[in-house]
Amino acid sequence: MKRLLRVSFDIFISSVTPILTWFLLSIILDKKLINVFTLTYPLQCLSGIITAIFGMGASICIYKDNNKNSSNNGIFYGLLVSLVIFIYILFNNDGYIKLMNMNANDYHIFSIYSIIQLFNQTIVMLILNKLYYMEENKKANKISLLFNMSYFVITIVISLITFNQFLVMIYTSIIMSLFTLIILITNIGKIDFKLNFYNAFKYNSVSIVKNILFFIIYLFGFKNSFAYGTKYIVAINLATLVTDLQWDIETSVSTVAKIDISKNKFVYKEHLKNALKLNVILISSVIIMSLIGIFIYKPNMFIFLIFMTWHIIDYMLAPFTNIKISYLQLEYSSFKTTFNEMIAFAIRIFMSFIPTPFCTIIGQMCSSIYEFTYSTIKFGKIRIGINKEN
Fold first, then answer.
1. Whole-model pTM?
2. CA dist 190 to 69, 76, 127, Å?
3. Fewer C-beta within 10 Å: the chain N or C terminus?
4. Each residue of 29-73: pLDDT tens digit?
5. Nearest Cα to 114, choosing from 32, 36, 167, 171?
């Protein structure tokens, strides 16, 4: 449980500081800035893809492929890919904002800020994944805390001093990019450029495919929902803000399970018990944050509660699904497990295009039920087979 909480702590810090930052920026500079969080939310999935391949995937190769430098090589290749992707998005910033059915004049400056923030956070997450697999969790905690608190403090202090969006974006981006470079240089080890890209993808294919499909879902789903007007934008943005942190932390369940599975130390009941304890904390925090958000932003309650009801139900299913899928991917068949994840997300993508502002939550509901059903049935059959052999 202690190890799960350490990994969860890093994810908590990296998720809660952007949320608090956007809350405060919307109070200090412009109330509309709170919507930038949801505007650039699909781009978080691109960061997740890069981290899943070149962070966790490359780290698993240390044990599965006996490649002691694969984490460092993964960080190097992840840096190159991140530069290409995020620089391209920066040069097409206004086009992206318009694609999301939002006003480029209102969000141009802080969309740039958010894109640069996501790039820096991607590089730090590559470093943290390496440290998790080296079992240097305390060092990872310190780096995560220092990086994210620095981002938060610098952004808010400069905002209070200048009250100027452009200056906040410029100063914060320069300072934190230099800080990210220092973290990278001091924590990357020997690079020999050897990395089995196929295996790095295969060992973490479920997470990679999930992030790819999430990108498509949120890009077109939010675009679809935002076209229905301000009351839906406000309700969806608030529902995303109060649940995003907890969904990010939920991924720590899979991270810790995969570490133990790859090292042949996996005990299902122990992982499930710890995951359920964590979920009690997560659901409680969602309820508290929702009450605070309702008081501040006053969303349409009917719309907001529709989104929040399914999020709560989905949180309850997540520990059972995520642990089983992690096991099936590494010990049963990465191809079959990934294929079934693709079916679940194909359902979700299809739902993202239906003409209703609730398209994203309907898709989430359908795909979660499919994932839970598949993983429970398949994992149950495998456990029965193992018990018979024993």
1. 0.74
2. 7, 10, 13
3. C
4. 887 887 888 888 889 889 989 988 888 888 787 777 777 778 888
5. 36
